[in-house]
Structure formats: structure tokens, C-alpha cells
Write a structure and sequence with these properties.
Number of domains: 1
Shape: globular
Structural class: mainly alpha
Largest sheet: 2 strands, antiparallel
Number of helices: 5
Strand content: 5-15%
Order of helices and strands: HHEEHHH
Distance between the termini: 6 Å
């Protein structure tokens, strides 16, 4: 089932909590090659696909000079803008 709702909208509605969001971000940053899929109310969210779909996030993660905070914020942005399927 496709949806037009973003993870950010689910976050604002408190369906996705800060704890879930932080855990997803930390899991990705710890091992970007590990598959990370979250199920949200019958919808599936693929973290790797969200990162690949966000060019800015890819650019930040590719920068050797990016700080840990910049990397975390870039991944958070990609997650919040993504749409579960």
C-alpha cells in the first residue's frame, strides 16, 4: 500500500517516537550496509532506500570532513522526508 504520508508526519502524530527515530539513525550510522526495515502501522520503511533517495544526505555522508552531528542530522533528514510503502 503506497502512502503520501512521510515519516516526519508520522513523527509529528507521535506514531513514530523519538526513541524509534534515534534508534534507526544510530543503527544506520553504526553499520550502513546492514539492512534496516521498520514496520509502522502496516507500512514498511526501508532506511537504506531513504538514504539512497536523498542526494544531500549522500553528499554529507561521503564528505570526509563531515562531523558526527552533521552525519546524524543528514540521516535524520532523509528519514523524516521518506515515505513508507
Amino acid at each position: 500500500m503506497a502512502t503520501t504520508t512521510t515519516v516526519g508526519e508520522l513523527y509529528k502524530a507521535k506514531i513514530v517516537t523519538e526513541e524509534i527515530l534515534s534508534a534507526m539513525i544510530e543503527a544506520y550510522l553504526a553499520d550502513p550496509s546492514a539492512p534496516a526495515v521498520l514496520e509502522i502501522g502496516g507500512l514498511r520503511f526501508n532506511l537504506g532506500a531513504a538514504i539512497k533517495a536523498n542526494t544531500w544526505t549522500q553528499e554529507v555522508l561521503a564528505r570526509a570532513s563531515a562531523t558526527p552531528g552533521q552525519r546524524r542530522n543528514a540521516v535524520r533528514t532523509a528519514v523524516l522526508l521518506a515515505r513508507p510503502s
